[in-house]
Specification:
The chain has strands at about 5-10, 20, 25-30, 35-40, 55, 60, 70, 85-90, 90-95, 95-100. The chain has no helices and 10 strands.
Length: about 100
């Protein structure tokens, strides 16, 4: 059974994303308008941190080699990444970000 875990305040997520540890994994939280997304904090291309990148349209751009990943599904959208990254279910309540822990 899954449960929702309060992790950070929505206001703490800046334009370059926020890296956190969650359930033993590095997670990148990014905010686009009122929506918050949770992606693996590690690029599938060379296992480098994704924090410090930027949003373009519906994608997160890796700050190291420019690979693009879908915000909603973690799909690898451009080279050099060919493998998708993990995503987590997110909800926001009372100014907090909650992630679904399985």
């Amino acid at each position: 059974m899954s449960k929702w875990v309060k992790v950070v305040k929505v206001a703490d997520i800046g334009g370059e994303g926020l890296g956190i540890a969650f359930s033993g994994e590095q997670v990148l939280l990014v905010r686009k308008g009122e929506e918050v997304f949770a992606l693996s904090g590690v690029c599938s291309h060379q296992e480098m941190e994704l924090c410090g990148g930027e949003i373009e349209d519906e994608a997160w751009i890796c700050p190291h080699h420019g690979a693009r990943f879908g915000l909603r599904d973690g799909k690898a959208l451009s080279m050099p990444a060919v493998e998708d990254i993990r995503t987590w279910a997110v909800k926001c309540e009372d100014g907090w970000v909650l992630l679904e822990e399985e």
